Predict the 3D structure of the following.
Amino acid sequence: MLDIHTYDAQAGGNVLYKALAHPLAAEALAGLAASVRAAGPVAVYDPEGMFAMVLALCPGAADGLPGLGVIEGVYVHDTQRVGRPTAAGPARALVDLPLASVGAVLVVSFDGARVRDRIAHLLPDGARVFALDGVRLPDTLLTVPERYLDRLNFATNHAFFRDAEGLSTRLVTANYWARYGATDVRLWLRLFGARGEVLASWEEAVPDGESAIVIDSRAVRARFGLPPFVGQLFVHAIGVAGHDVVKYALDTYGTGDNPSLSVTHDANAWPSDRYANLPAPDVGEEVVLWVQNSHAVPIPAGAMALNRMGDERQVPIMRGIGPYETVAIPVAECLPDLRWPAQIELRSGRYLVRPRYEVTRAARTRIAHLNVERADLRPDPGIADLPPSLGRGYLLPFPILDPARFRTVVQPSPMAESQGTLPLRLDCFDVEGRLTGRKFLGCLPRDHDLAQDVAELGVPEGHGELVYDFRDGGEADGWLHALIRFTAREGGHAAETSFGAHIFNTVMTYRGEPQSYSGPPPGLTTRLFLKGGNGLGEAFCCLIYPASAAWRPWSRTVLSLHDGQGQAVAKADLEIACSGSAMVWPHRLFGAAAIARAGMGGYVMIRDVTCRLFGYHGVMRADGAFSLDHMFGF
């Protein structure tokens, strides 16, 4: 497992990880490591506890040695750290550094000159001194140059990016940083090919204001004269404010005779030990796990593995994967006897930023992502005894599409390593918020194979909510997830998405729930981004007004259509019943002329200051092909 610390629920993201994993930083780190190796054995002074991460992400390891070569010892000035394990044995006291027989000293600091001056009297005779100063990104790529490890300096993310074999991709987002006062936002981008090679690096200026951002693989391929490619796009936003996360929607669409159409969204940006909700293939399907190495260090053969969820017998992925390489792993080659609705767990060893999977059936592909499986969660006995003021507590809302035209299937997914049971019930509501059906799904074991076809309940179009139900016992942790699969009854086109539960729209709170996009509860609000069809079909979304307990009887939702430059084109009001939902078609709501004025990159912002809505967006094509995924807010 890669020895890195990336994210936890309390502290948030580890900025050091992003600073070292940036492709330009990785290149500089490789050069630094070569110089250190050439100077001879190295003593490491680690004043801030960063060395383990540096070593893990340092390219150039060979012949059983790390990228830095022979490490004589790791020295610290904190007496409480002396003796603790490091990559080179127990940590040593800094006062002993003069006795080190080394040719180099590495100061693990981005302010190496200052630190070197402070310990000059402790440096071994003749030793060359190195630091991380040369690993820093140039100031032109920093939002806050005076504080290198400021989180805004590393607003980065990865995207699966492909233009090959009749399939293209399109990344769509907006300059939401402008809302927080950002101007002169730029994107630094690097496209890696399947072997991890750099295909192109470039910058794009983002117009001021809440303008659209559209990066299409066909346009990139034409701009740089590239051959067909399957790889990953690294995105670094510079000059940002408010958010250090790069959020986007990613369309995959067929060209020529390829009928495929699907959508997924931004990567999680932080590697995880495990990922879940990888579906086993159904009859007539091929499921491919796209493994994209997110780092400049290779993934050893056998360092990652697959297993059936709930079965600890692991099948190693016996293929080494090079830096930034993209590899398709057919799931059936690893687990040949496993079939849908079985679920698969990926032990990723922290080498991957949220991996994707692709399902192919009858020449159509659909692509989705795995979810981070939490290692820090434990069952919370308080969830089974929530006060009445929190009503039904945690809810996982999802659309129930018109049953005459679509099958809607929901599959609960364990999403924490400690999760042994899932005690669940399914509640269904029509668009007016009336309960139309209810089914106790049971106290499901971790290895369950339930995939509930909502049509069996005989309910109309509207939405469903998974909720905890402890009538047969079981435990809960609040990290309830599910995979929802939608299939057209005619033509067989399918889409799938996954997300987790929250407590929605209650005055009272429990462990940070309900959440709000701006301000603390009970001031719940909504801000959702709905991208336009952009020539792929008609955009739509299903807006759901979930309520754990009684809330306002109607939403007061405002939908604003913007053009690609972020200018408002039209506005409309919408009321959604509490526990109800609404299908929104912008071309019907605003009219075809307004949609035409919005043009390429046009989008809808959905705003409500009275409640928190949850939504799913997609595109519907005239031939019945469609995409669907959950929405995100800025």
